[in-house]
Amino acid sequence: MADLSEIKLSIYRFNPDDSRDPYMQDYVLDNPEKKDMMLLDALLLAKKQDATLSFRHSCREGVCGSDAMNINGQNGLACVTPISKLMRGSKPIELRPLPGMPVITDLVVDLTQFYAQYEKIKPFLQNDEPEPATERLQSPEERKKLDGLYECILCACCTSSCPSYWWNPDKFVGPAGLLQASRFISDSRDTHTDERLADLDNPFDLYRCRKIMNCATVCPKGLNPTQAIGHIQQQMLDRET
Amino acid sequence: MATVASNQFDAIIIGAGGSGMRACLQLARSGYRVALLSKVFPTRSHTVSAQGGITAALGNMDEDDWRWHMYDTVKGSDYLGDQDCIEYLCKNGPEVVYELEHMGLPFSRIDSGKIYQRPFGGQSKNYGGDQASRTCAAADRTGHALLHALYQQNIKANAHIYSEWFALDLVMGENGQVAGVIAMCIETGECVFFHSRITILATGGAGRIFQSTTNARICTGDGFGMVLRAGLPLQDMEMWQFHPTGIAGVGCLVTEGARGEGGYLINKNGERFMERYAPSARDLASRDVVARAMTQEIREGRGFAPDGVDHVKLKLDHLGKDILDSRLPGICELSRTFAHVDPVNEPIPVVPTCHYAMGGIPTNINGQVLTQNEVGQEVIVPGLYAAGECACVSVHGANRLGGNSLLDLVVFGRAVGRHVNDALRDGVTMPQVSQDAIDKGMQRYHHWMDSSEGESYVPVREEMQRYMQEDFSVFREEKSMTDGLEKLQQCATRLEHAYLPDKSRVFNTSFIEALEMDNLLLTAISTAHSALSRRESRGAHSREDYPDRNDAEYLHHTLYFPETHEIKKRDVNLKPLTMKTFEPVERVY
Q1: Which of A54, A124, A151 sits opposite B141 (nearest CB)?
Q2: Which of A146, B31, B394, B424 is the most buried (most CB within 10 A)?
Q3: Per-residue pLDDT tens digits for A132-175
Q4: Using one digit for the tens of pLDDT, what is the confidence trace for B33-48?
Q5: Among B147, B506, B517, which would you mutate to test the A interface (most chain A Cβ atoms within 10 Å of its Cβ)?
Q6: CA distance A103 to B353
Q7: Which residues contact B468 (CB under 8 A, 6 or more apart)?
Q8: Contact present, B107 and B116 (Cβ < 8 Å)
Q9: Does the CB of A151 have a partner CB in chain B at under 8 Å?
Q10: CB–CB of A15 and B504 under 8 A?
Q11: Is B514 near chain A, with CB under 8 Å?
């Protein structure tokens, strides 16, 4: 177990109002009780030392997806990552903004493109049948197909760790968007499967996935976008034959 | 004073949680010029953390009736809820749940293909009979599923969303109506006057006034603060719900659904102690009842950690791995992450934790905000609506039942959307606004940005949270509350002279926290005054010096007026719309 009495952070700093180029700033936090804590708690202690440090955060329990960042080189949520897992001898914990996204300030990135890719796959149920007076029926087995898909929290850990997305952020939907596409394609209540598949049937939207699997490695909810993308590709093949 | 850009709308909504997005959806389909403002990206709103479900009498598991749901809700409220509004809530429950299902909300299912419903606290069949199963669930991630479905529908409806804009203050029109808000773009620091015919507050709760809360860090009472600074009253602010099962020391919520599925609480002797406090409903008694029982067990030395964060435990292992994985996967994950306990093998350490504001901005059944005029008559504040946790309709009275908050969001979010639609169609005019009124809305911006010395807001916030925790918690009494109020007033003086060290205009999160602290402290002070005024025990407000409910003197709402700190009474509406009154009787579970 690492020595937790002193927590060292090295944090990416940038403010566009400031003439300085981006730089890494060190913070040393005293932790006399050697208490393990979540990285978000450590960041809040750092912010007490330095009010100018900016990062997003809200639910502090891994469901709102606000505090995604690059932690020791891997994307994750600060609020569900214990510092004991990050300490590496005397080296500080390195925190950078999510890669591949424009930086607004410090650890805050601009997610406009990410959200646009999400919207592109029409992330809403489409059903042309008239609405019944009560619920549309769905068997527990049909509902089970949505498990592992609907839990996405749009934190962008996956998409911003995807090299294919780094190359073509304006064209490739990316793992988060495709996971959602799969969520609606798999929903027995959605009647637009053909249209959804046709929309994705082009060289960029779906087929830029190279099965690198960074997305599945970093997902803080344990979801597997690569697998979901594979399912869509399989359905595409089935449809063509 | 710098000029502020102005933008005109037919309606604006502040807050993109469940109620704000439901209202927005209603209006986005109307063709009016509508804007939804949120200080966080919509799916990061606190609705996302709701777990157990949304209560509505669908009758999927067993026979059920919305009238039974109404009875339970009135009783749960300790008779402080308005019975006309509760009837409206429960009667519309099934319809709004079906709407959500049609929107794509991935509810869990039973073999017939219908929506799965689980038992929750305070639910009965046939007016106080056997336990009912009335809470519609998407595993234990219902809030997440609901919020995302509503956001997705708003995308479909092309709603106009201002994401990461922070509302500073209401702007009042020349004839006393609300004329919009000043809001700041967090990314750029730019302030804009959102001049609007109608303003809807859907700003959520303020659990962060307490040290220990299940609430997200964004739950800072921004709507409460704005309303109080406009000189308008808040209602029933003494009524804060303490959820029985927050993870000890961390505060993260463990859904009541865990007890609904068959889990139960134990003390250090392994005793299922709720059997002594609520022989019939046991662990599924109302939340106020369970929270008090737990606190009493801990006080009497039957907690597990008298030297640390003392707590009791929630036992789930007897349910088996399959049930836990399929119905409670989210709380298993939370428990492993935050309590280092796997519920499959070991019980979870839990403690009552501040969870929900039953009180808030007083509204009528349409969501129109109310105040009193000089002679004490009830009047509508023109141009202003409120919905969701920030509103006090009041459907929850002195104690909210589990699963009724998500229901409240969609029922009254929709009702507000409909009423605003009608008001716009009937030609509500754009309020005239003076430059003075706009400048007033910019006051806090300049106050913090111009501050040049003093202490930070951070220690003031920490002390306020400690005082609230010590003096206004599960059990309350006169002396400690009086001391608590005095300490909160000292906090207010300190906050006035506090200093903002970071003056950056780009995504300045310290500035946002300072603005939120203004709102938190006003909320805390309103709670202190209201709690001191109610010398009885009712629902969540439990006084050791006045242990009994006193209907003769206190069967009324508390209205707190900010300028004088005066408390006025408002009658509880005991008359339902079509049903017969449920007369106040002793509450037994």
Answers
A1: A151
A2: B394
A3: 999 999 999 999 999 999 999 999 999 999 999 999 999 999 99
A4: 999 999 999 999 999 9
A5: B506
A6: 37
A7: B209, B210, B211, B484, B488, B524, B527
A8: yes
A9: yes
A10: yes
A11: no
User: Which residue numbers of B are catalytic?
Assistant: 287
Q: For position A239, what pLDDT does the model report?
A: 85
B102–A136 CB contact, under 8 Å: yes
CA atoms within 13 A on the CB side of B180: 28
Question: CB–CB of A189 and B104 under 8 A?
Answer: yes
Residue with tokens 């599945």: A216
Q: Which amino acid is at A168?
A: N
- In B387-494 the beta strands, taken as DSSP E runs, fall at 391-392, 475-476
Rounded (10°) angle between helices B83-103 and B404-425: 90
SS3 labels along B553-587: HHCEEEEEECCCCEEEEEECCCCCCCCCCCCCCCC
CB-CB contact of B228 with B566 (8 Å): no
Burial (0-12, 13-18, 19+ Cβ within 10 Å), B580: exposed
Say how far apart CA A25 and CA A47 lie, in whole Å: 12
Q: Is B465 on the interface with A (CB under 8 A)?
A: no
For residue B393, name the pLDDT band (cuts at 50, 70, 90). very high
CA distance A61 to A216: 20
**Does any CB of chain B come closer than 8 Å to the CB of residue A113?**
no
Bridge partners (DSSP) of residue A75 are A70
8 Å CB contact between B127 and B135: no
Convert B311-333 to b/e letters by CB count within 10 Å (16 or more is b). Answer: bbbbbbeebeeeebeebbbbbbb
- Count other Cβ atoms within 10 Å, centred on residue B165: 23
pLDDT in tens, B403-440: 999 999 999 999 999 999 999 999 999 999 999 999 99
| Other C-beta atoms lying within 10 Å of the C-beta of residue B101 | 24
Which secondary-structure segment (H or E) carries B438? helix B435-441
At B2, is the secondary structure helix, strand, or coil? coil
Question: To which H or E segment does residue B352 belong?
Answer: strand B348-357
Is B112 in Cβ contact with A131 (below 8 Å)? no
What does the angle CA B338 – CA B342 – CA B344 come to, to the nearest 5 degrees? 150
Residue B185, sorted as left (phi over 0), alpha (psi -120 to 50) or beta, turns out to be beta
Q: Helix, strand, coil: what percent of chain B each, to 5?
A: 40, 20, 40
pLDDT at B181: 98
The complex scores an ipTM of 0.98
Q: Which of residues 241-260 of B touch A (CB under 8 A)?
A: 252-253
HSE-CB at B32 with a 13 A cutoff on CA atoms is 29
Q: What is the pLDDT of residues B115-162, one digit of tens each?
A: 999 999 999 999 999 999 999 999 999 999 999 999 999 999 999 999
Longest Cα–Cα distance in chain A: 66
